[in-house]
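Table S2 (continued). Query chain:
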Amino acid sequence: MNAPFSASAGMSMLPHPYLLFLGDTEQAGFAKTAFGLRDWAADKCVGELRLTDATVSTGLTAMSPAEARSRGARAMVIGVANQGGVIPPAWRASLVEALEAGLDLIAGMHMRLADLPEVAAAAKRLGRRLHDVRVPPANIPVASGRKRSGKRLLTVGTDCALGKKYTALALAGAFAERGIDVDFRATGQTGIMISGGGIPMDAVVSDFEAGAAEILSPDAAPDHWDVIEGQGSLIHPAYAAVSLGLLHGSQPDVFVVCHEPGRTHMLGTAGYRLLPVQEIVDLTIALGRRTNPSIRCGGFSFNTSALDADAAEDLMARESERLGLPVADPVRGGPAFDALVASCLA
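Corresponding output:
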């Protein structure tokens, strides 16, 4: 392993098991932190707390903070990554309730828990801890552009919240199963909570974005792989900046394009349509060549959760033939995913 951000500095210090707080969120894409923890750290999740019947659900048992505490929970995690990373006033009574029930609070929002007067006062009064994950390390350098040793894979997307983290985790796991020296590099709050380390790239000042990506994935042995979690999309009108900084700084040898079939418009941004996956390939190569002239596409990761198994298999097979590269759903796995792994490693 070649990890500059050790688990001892990350998730192992976060108190768990967790109660997942979903607030009043009605779009599943904004609850990706909760879904990510459910899917990749299920042993650390005891239940969920929703404020309304319309709120997105993870399918975990609904319970109050007091009930969660009685079942062993030690913290409540804000399982939402909404636009702007804000903690709205309607949530704050529930946060205080969790503190009063004996739970710490964990958040990956831009708005920090300690900056909420009623939450900070309750935590101080009750002796509870507030854990803000979306805080980058100090003294990040400006990128040098220097080519680093080792191999790197970056997941990129046609939009936000459609599988870049899941794909990176699945690929890193598949590499490890094949005996390859590999690290998953987390670049968002959920990935950091799952893996125990990383840098929240969207909290880094723009001038230092590529520099943060460089220190996240340092020099390594020639046969070592860093599988880097992507953020945003190069075509997103709000979040393209973090995507480009991550692309330039990570200098990927291989990238995988992540896409959700059936999604037509960009999440949270009315009027902007997604581009075809081939255009994302072309754009990523054009921009990525600036820091790695040898960059190539290893294939495509499709989030087919809205399709049944037969429809998903048929779609991915047809798209693979059309695009000339493997298309797979890493959650479904199978031969298509094996082909994607082989293509990335080729």
